[in-house]
Write a structure and sequence with these properties.
This protein is α/β, with parallel strands linked by helices. Strands 8-9-10-18-11-17-16-15-14 form a 9-stranded mixed sheet, sandwiched between helices. A 4-stranded mixed sheet has the order 3-6-5-4. It has a 3-stranded mixed sheet with strand order 1-2-7, with helices on one face. The chain has 12 helices and 18 strands. The radius of gyration is 26 Å and the shape is globular. The two termini are 49 Å apart. 32% of the residues lie in helices and 24% in strands. The N terminus is likely disordered. It has 3 domains: 199 residues, Alpha-Beta Complex (Protein-Tyrosine Phosphatase, Chain A); 33 residues, no CATH class; 194 residues, Protein tyrosine phosphatase superfamily (Protein-Tyrosine Phosphatase, Chain A), CATH 3.90.190.10. α4 crosses α5 and α4 runs parallel beside α6. Keywords: Receptor, Signal.
Length: 443
């Protein structure tokens, strides 16, 4: 087992390759020794994904492992374990596992934002003076080396007068573990991550200080006459990819399905019409805080795409449609009426849509709709929440309406039972808006 000190940290980390059945026997003695001498004395440490695998591969391992609490988020999961050696008088060891789940099967993440947030969460939990932190991926060199290098360089920035030496850190790590940071792609990703961390800084606000911080952010700096809101938004514009930098070849191949060529769906996050030869629709998956692909942001349907829209709702089992625009704005159509009038039904090729109920609520209209696939003989019920007081310029003077709509969404999900984090598509929200990045992004 390899031990090494993080640069500028006095915290020991242990790197492990992925645990497999053939490695369990060789790990046993080292793990038992290290847990007793290094970890149990400190009572708490973080591990990347170890105990669960050992438990699966070797049920005879002399320990008792209990899971007390899981927190599942879109990009990572944390788990609390209690580990008790069966023939030891030592107290049970409390273990927190931080499991990053947003790393793709191949390559590196598109952006470093989620990994930086994950790293910040781990560092906040792991205090100075605790025992060693176990970090592993599959081989224990590529992704592991990437995360540890980012950690070292961020510490270096704080301790050494803003010096950045990524290559130097990796050279140092490779004297302790061969091939740390395995590919050019990972090496470039580390630079992107450090650049984002330096440029954006720490934007997290403690909830107890939020009200005071909002007031402070409204004050203008004498030198620039800009507020912190404006400064932060400028940074966002600087670090965010430009539309031309997003791969969107599929959208460009179907111009007749787009209201315009602005802000087209990316190839990586675009929604696919299952079973259709022409499977493109102007819609994009978006992660929520706790769920991957919790939302689908869609362009407001046109007459020519209304059938595709209903196929998406039916196939993806979306429970709620949130409509953030009117049918007409400034005298022009912004959304085709894709639902029938009260008491009627509408036909969109093989899909029939019935309006079961329509109820006006302050600031929005709630409609209960049933979409039937006549070919398959299957039906699906969905609730549309149509906001009526959001102005065409994107400003919303009735913020209470947004809160009401969100509360109604949550209530519908509770009533229908469509809250499973293992089936995120069942809790999709459909913001239908011609200005995707305006109203939908704010919602």
């Amino acid at each position: 087992m390899l031990h090494f000190h993080l640069s500028m940290l006095l915290n020991l980390k242990i790197m492990l390759p992925g645990v497999t059945p053939s490695k369990i026997r060789n790990l046993k003695s080292n793990l038992l020794y290290d847990y007793n001498s290094v970890v149990i004395q400190k009572q708490i440490y973080e591990c990347s994904n170890l105990f669960q695998l050992i438990q699966e591969y070797d049920p005879d391992f002399p320990k008792s492992i209990g899971t007390s609490q899981n927190l599942i988020l879109a990009d990572y999961t944390t788990r609390e374990f209690s580990v008790q050696l069966s023939e030891s008088s030592e107290p049970a060891l409390s273990v927190t596992q931080f499991h990053f789940t947003a790393w793709p099967d191949h390559g590196v993440p598109d952006y470093a934002t989620s990994l930086l947030a994950f790293h910040k969460k781990v560092k906040k939990h792991h205090k100075r003076g605790m025992g060693p932190m176990i970090v592993h991926c599959s081989a224990g060199v590529g992704r592991t080396g990437t995360l540890i290098t980012i950690d070292c360089v961020l510490e270096q920035l704080q301790e050494e007068e803003k010096v950045v030496d990524i290559a130097g850190v990796i050279i140092h790590l490779r004297t302790q573990r061969m091939k740390m940071v395995q590919s050019l792609e990972q090496y470039m990703f580390i630079h992107d991550a450090i650049l984002e961390a330096v440029t954006c800084g720490d934007t997290q606000i403690d909830a107890s200080l939020f009200s005071r911080r909002i007031t402070e952010m409204s004050h203008r700096y004498p030198q620039t006459q800009l507020t912190e809101y404006e400064n932060q938004f400028r940074v966002l514009e600087k670090v965010s990819p430009k539309p031309c930098e997003i791969p969107r070849n599929k959208a460009l191949q179907h111009p007749f399905k787009n209201r315009n060529d602005y802000y087209l769906p990316s190839d990586d996050w675009g929604v696919v019409l299952r079973g259709d030869k022409q499977d493109y629709i102007h819609a994009t998956f978006v992660n929520g805080y706790k769920q991957k692909r919790a939302f689908i942001i869609a362009q407001s349907p046109m007459e020519s795409t209304a059938r595709d829209f209903w196929k998406m709702v039916h196939d993806r089992k979306c429970g709620v449609i949130v409509m953030l625009c009117d049918l007409l704005e400034d005298g022009q159509e912004t959304c085709y009426q894709y639902w029938p009038v009260r008491g009627g039904m509408a036909q969109f090729r093989e899909y029939t849509v019935d309006l079961m109920e329509e109820k006006p609520v302050k600031g929005f209209v709630m409609r209960t709709l049933v979409v039937v696939n006549e070919k398959a003989g299957s039906a699906h019920q969905v609730v549309q929440l149509h906001m009526t007081n959001w102005s065409p310029d994107g400003s919303c003077s009735h913020l209470a309406t947004i809160t009401s709509v969100i509360n109604e969404m949550s209530a519908i999900q509770r009533r229908t039972g469509k809250q499973s984090y293992h089936s995120p598509l069942q809790v999709c929200m459909w913001p239908v808006c011609v200005r995707l990045v305006l109203n939908s992004g704010m919602m």
